[in-house]
Amino acid sequence: MMQHCLASLPTFSTLPLHCTCRQVVDVDDFINGIKRAFELLGYRVYEVSLKDKSSDDELLSQLSLIDTAQLKLALSVNALAVELINKLPQLATIPFYTYLVDHPIHLLPRFYGTKAKLLCVDKEHVTFLSQLGIQAQFWPHAVCDTELSAEYVPFSQKKGILFPASFTDESAHFAEINKVAPNIAAKLTDANVRSISDVLRMLGFMQSGISPSVQLNDQIVTFLRRCDLYLRGRDRNTLIKECHQAGLALTIVGSNWDKTHQYDSHCYLPAVPFTELKNLISNSRFVLHHSPGFEQGQHERVVYPLARGTSVLSSATRYLFESYGSDNGVAFYNSMAELKQISVSVSEGHYSSWINNANSIIERNETWRSRIAML
Q1: Confidence at 20, pLDDT banded by 50, 70, 90
Q2: Dist. CA 74–CA 88, nearest whole Å
Q3: Where is the Spore protein YkvP/CgeB glycosyl transferase-like domain (predicted)?
Q4: What gap in Å lies between CA 74 and CA 15, rounded to an integer?
Q5: Is residue 34 part of a domain?
Q6: Do the beta carbons of residue 163 and residue 251 sit within 8 Å?
Q7: What pLDDT shows up at residue 55?
């Protein structure tokens, strides 16, 4: 589905629109939280929902039913309908934001050359877009305040480590990368190359005073997307393998795991609706977080568990450590031995303290209401 909404103070309105490259239900949850946050701040919110293949004319038809003269701002997700800025004069006179829930390289053709203001979940995404001359702002993932009001599952009833992630065939991606650029493929085997941002830096992007060695044409953008997917799959699959070798059992939930080797120590579940996934999160003692290359930002797999009373296991990144520090819900590890020790040794008292501290941080800094205040 594609959606957008409008919100207003007694005489002002906001229009959010959205579409996604991840499961629609995730984004529905995001948009509902953003809508509620606008309403809590006194705005009237309008939402327009269309099917993925709906035409601009169909969207314009729905917009014609709204008093666009009252609009305060427009907000879309994943660069949906940004081309309407040039087709609807009323939208050209208000801020038009679009929230990118993944790396901009995956959606570049949608927004390149438009006047949309881009909201990014990672500071490195902002740096990349700034070099392209595109206006962007850091806007990390958040949660609706209602997530904080849910009753926590007692520690004694929480079981296991949940790993929500789909399977990515790293070998297939690597083979294609190696065909096109074997020199880059060789560098991707280095574990210190952690994200697409590292690849972009290899090519001269995101570095002050250095001009990129390639132009962002369709072929390069496709190549970079494949590099991103390869790195995500490589590290995700390595983490699962290392947990198996360490005797650390995971409950893995996501699509396509039937297409790869499944380790005996892990339990594999198919992809589930987001509401069901949230229940799995609440009933798990830990959520194991693998960052999809968001080294200077955060993923919803961090904020949702914390809001629902479940601790997160994560390798340390500067942004997450600065945001949560020690004993505040996110347990950072540097090795498999440390990961296993944390997961088996935490006491109920210590765990409860973590979650209470995390709850305070989320309520203060990580809700959609606090994000809207940044606009």
Answers
A1: very low
A2: 12
A3: 239-342
A4: 4
A5: yes
A6: yes
A7: 66
Nearest to 202 by CA among 172, 159, 231: 231
CA atoms within 13 A on the CB side of 301: 17
Average pLDDT, the chain: 88
340-373 confidence digits (pLDDT tens): 999 999 999 999 999 999 999 999 999 999 999 9
- CA 302 to the chain's CA centroid: 10
- Cα four-point dihedral sign 314, 318, 319, 321: positive
- Cα angle, residue 232 at apex, residues 229 and 235 outer, rounded to 5°: 145
Q: Minimal CA–CA distance to 6: which of 65, 56, 78?
A: 65
Query: Which residues have C-beta within 8 Å of that of residue 308, sequence separation ≥ 6?
Result: 147, 150, 152, 278, 281, 282
Across 46-59, average pLDDT: 67
Between CA 261 and CA 230 the distance in angstroms is 17
pTM of the model: 0.90
Answer yes or no: is 259 within a domain. no
Longest Cα pair distance anywhere in the chain, in angstroms?
61
Q: Specify the length of the chain in residues.
A: 375
Gap between the Cα atoms of 86 and 151, Å rounded: 46
Determine, yes or no, domain membership for 47.
yes
In a domain, 361, yes or no: no
Amino acid at site 196? I
Amino acid at 57: D
Domain with 66 in it: 26-139
User: Tokens 């939402």 belong to which residue?
Assistant: 47
- End-to-end Cα, the chain, rounded Å: 25
The CA distances from residue 164 to 174, 246, 263, 290, 367, in Å, are 23, 19, 16, 9, 22
Q: E strands along the chain, which residues?
A: 2-6, 13-18, 44-50, 71-77, 96-100, 117-120, 136-138, 161-164, 251-253, 267-269, 286-289, 311-315, 330-333
Q: How far apart are CA 114 and CA 335, in angstroms?
A: 44
